[in-house]
Amino acid sequence: MNAPAGPAAKPAGLPPAGLPGWRPEWSRLVSAPDASGAERTWHVLDTAPDAAPGEVLGTLLCVHGNPTWSYLWRHLAQRASRQGFGWRVVALDHLEMGFSERTGVRRGLADRIAELDAVVAALDLSGDVVAVGHDWGGVVATGWAAREHARGGRHAARRLAGLVVMNTAASHPVDAPPPGPLTLATLPGVLPLVTSRTDAFLRTTLALCRPPLPADVRAAYRAPYRTRADRAGVEAFVADVPTGPEHPVRPAFEEVSAGADRLGASGLPALVLWGPRDPVFGERYLRDWRARLPGADVHRFAGAGHLLPEDADVAGVVLRWLDERVHPAGPARPAGPAAPQDAQEQAPERPEHRPLWARTAERAAAEPDAPAVVEVGEREGSGPPPVRRIPWSLLQRRTTELAAGFAELGVRPGQRVSLLVPPGADLTAVLYAVLRIGAVAVVADAGLGVRGLTRAVTGAGVDVVVGVPKALAAARVLRWPGRRIAATPRGVRVDEAALRLLGVETTVLEVAERGRRALAAGAQLPPEPAPEAEALVLFTSGSTGPAKGVVYTHRQTAMLARALGAAIRTDPAHGLVSAFAPFALLGPALGATCVVPAMDVTRPATLTASALADAVAASGSTSAFLSPAALVNVLATADGLDEAGRAALARVETLLSAGAPVPVPLLQRARELMPLADPRSPYGATEVLPATDVGLSDLLEAGAGDGTCVGRPVPGVVVGIAPLDADGAAAEDVVTTPGVTGEVVVGGEHVKDRYDQLWDTHAASVRVRPSSALAAANPSGRWHRTGDVGNLDERGRLWVQGRLAHVVVTADEVITPVGLEQRAETVEGIARAALVGVGPRHARRLAVVAEADPPVRRTTAAGPAVARAVRAATGRDVVAVLLVPALPTDVRHNSKIDRVRVTAWAGRVLAGQRAGRLA
Q1: Do the bridges between strand 783-792 and strand 158-166 make them parallel or antiparallel, or are there none, so unpaired?
Q2: pLDDT in tens, 543-566
Q3: Architecture of domain 808-910
Q4: pLDDT of residue 334
Q5: At 746, which helix (H) or strand (E)?
Q6: Cα(380)–Cα(46) distance, rounded to whole angstroms?
Q7: 808-910 matches 358-596 in CATH topology
Q8: Which residue of 291, 616, 689, 717 has the fewest CB atoms within a 10 Å radius of its CB?
Q9: What is the pLDDT, as a whole number, of residue 60?
Q10: What pLDDT is stored for residue 81 in this prediction?
Q11: 285 and 173 in contact (C-beta within 8 Å)?
């Protein structure tokens, strides 16, 4: 209910001239009754006040929060107008806020929802309306949308077409304190001091932006809040936070929560945008939105915070979402998880679905004592290494017991379980158990580092963390979400007091024991999850930006395992030594014995030739899978092999290395060590693996080319090219014309389902127009834009020429880096090179940053002879050749050059600036 606020009334006005990004013609004053019936005046941003019905696609009804005003929506207004999307943007300033009337009345949530409704009526909005809200404006917008939906179309000329919310709340627990720093701000003596008597609350909010807002933009936000009377609404909005069951706003807020549930159940198109670096609306609010709007598209902007429209391209995402979800423009194309799945459902001759754990049960029944997993430890002295063999019967029993135990603990289908356990039998059993009960396994490589793991675990919204004590210690310190279950090493005494300090609820061994007792008492496992249910969230390496969560369904996971098995020649008759964590998990799914060598899996380069030989000898396996960095170190340490070790490696018949293109000389050296093997290198990504396959013999036959040959598509996969334009951008059209350079696009049944909570990223990755031949060859309808650039040759082989993000665009041409780098590396004195462009586009020049052979101890310019040789080898006018001790690489593979970092560094060096350390 309205209540006197104290400050004197002040009429509505217009923003001053000259505000950055603001157009004076957007401003209008609108009269309408407030919640008490009194006639009031609102300042409203309106990009098309005179639009007639049919002249716009619809209206974006935008509602700001506290302590901003409609200036928050200027980017959306600019983009909607400039890009011709045909959307009218209407954004009001709340009464007591912005440039709307100051009435001296304190208003609650119910009042603001009613007053938004009154302004909509006064504007006589018609056609499709999408409600958009930020901060507490998101609560108001949701309340209005629920009211509009409940009217059931009684406004015949208007239709609620969607809801967009960002960094806001759908509910707030009765017993919870105010969110984040609002706890201090809402204290009785503090509240007026920081909100109305001073502008501290406003300045603090504006200071949350990263990068900092320009001074003139900060001044524009402060423009309507110069005096204490101007800021009375800021104080009232903070006081509206519904703390406790007796708070006067509580009934209205609970009605908004119930309305959000109804909107979610109705199937209304919804978009949830989030800045995870928000001290006010943390992850729990995002999880609540996802639960209430289960069909919503979600996009998290890594690194963005509370004032999301200032930190990220909210306008671009909203307009693309409208184009895809509300008013599709042009030919239909897959934009989210539903469309590819619908296409997949129509694919003919789909193989029978066999879940990941099915082969374990079959092998346990047929050969119970045969080894499923072999774990090889480090040698101590001259004796043989310790070996732990886990038979199929034990793996199957432990998987079933863990599944029952997790179910008894209350882990439910759809809940997310983060697995921070080293590869081996324990991780395999936990993974298969989690999948069996329908929970979703979240697998993030420890090689991401603490910051990357934190972003992955927190962003995935995990419910349970299963990890070794070291990982759980990090979870405690960094406040990762979820219940804690400790995976303690076998034979190691458990310090129960220490585990309690880490917040550990139980251990994996206790979960298995709980499950054993439940099964003995007649408990049944939950029904098997549906093939289309979520199964895995696998995180990318983070080599080209923040690691992304890649979602696979149970059907796709099974297809992924089947495709990998075919590519790496692994089946029940051929065990696999895996020095690459994902394959250590998938081996048993193929019915193959998986061998884990002695190494630190978070650092592939720790695998030695002796450790690899010990793993081969301990299992009799004839196949091995290594990352390129692991293969490099195996070759570097081969001189330390004894006669038995060399004999063991000589029995290897299949050697595979993936994660980055593997140079031919490296594969040739590997074949010298393992003469029976034809070294192979499957190409793919976390989103689709494998995509192509190539062996050393294939590479020798292909010879030198402009890039790295990664072979032909594996069965069930099609590959096309999206040509580059003069700006280095890839087209939506996808062709198979030989010699055309562009982004590599892959199609097939085992392509990812989607990116997790990255709607815009996923939409861009599947936005393709394949040629008719490609479309016919990929009946699944699933596509993935890899971000790699390359071309197809006359024989259908794919040549990768670098990453799309690393293409160098000059005033005259578009240059892909890998081919030129390979030529630079033929120069004596150059070991590994990165080609970058420096300077503005109209004057951009090429530079080479390289590791030297022999190595240099500090950055130096190459001598004139080397520089001339590099220019001759590349055929380019390279402006500089810089020799460095080491090039920076990604954290997972230790082999992909971080060219974005190298480019920025080289630009500073050549501009004469302090460049800092490169790697």
Answers
A1: unpaired
A2: 667 889 999 999 999 998 888 888
A3: 2-Layer Sandwich (3.30)
A4: 38
A5: strand 742-748
A6: 76
A7: no
A8: 291
A9: 97
A10: 77
A11: no
Tokens for 201, please give them.
Answer: 């609350």
Which DSSP category does 781 fall into? -
**What pLDDT was estimated at residue 185?**
77
Residues with Cβ within 8 Å of 259's Cβ and at least 6 positions away in sequence, in order, are 142, 143, 145, 146, 147, 149, 150
Helices 864-874, 817-824: inter-axial angle, 10-degree rounding:
130
Q: How many CA atoms lie within 13 A of 14 on its CB side?
A: 12
End-to-end CA, the chain: 61
For the segment 805-852, what is each residue's pLDDT rounded down to a tens digit? 999 999 999 999 999 999 999 999 999 999 999 999 999 999 999 999
The 3-state secondary structure of 306-356 reads: CCHHHHCCHHHHHHHHHHHHHCCCCCCCCCCCHHHHHHHHCCCCCCCCCCC
Cβ contacts of residue 831 below 8 Å, gap of 6+? 825, 850, 851, 852, 853, 855
Topology (CATH level 3) of domain 3-172+251-326: Rossmann fold (3.40.50)
Hey, what amino acid is at 831?
A
What parts of the chain have a pLDDT lower than 50? 1, 4-6, 330-348, 891-894
Q: 104, exposed or middle or buried, with CB in 10 Å at 0-12, 13-18, 19+? A: middle
Strands 416-420 and 464-467 come out as: parallel
CA angle at 631 for the pair 628 and 632, rounded to the nearest 5°: 90
CATH classification (class only), 358-596: alpha beta
Q: Residue 333 has what pLDDT?
A: 38
Domain ranges of the chain: 3-172+251-326, 358-596, 703-805, 808-910
Task: State the alpha helices, DSSP H only, in 415-507.
Answer: 425-436, 449-460, 469-477, 496-501
Neighbouring residues of 198: CB distance < 8 A, sequence distance ≥ 6: none
Provide the token pair at 644.
Answer: 């038995």
DSSP letters, 204-258, are HHHTT-SSPPPHHHHHHHHTT--STTTTHHHHHHHHTS--STT-TTHHHHHHHHH
Q: What is the pLDDT of residue 143?
A: 98
Q: Map tokens 């590819």 to a residue.
A: 340
> Cα–Cα distances in Å, from 768 out to 346, 731, 779, 781?
19, 8, 14, 10
So what CATH class is 703-805? mainly beta
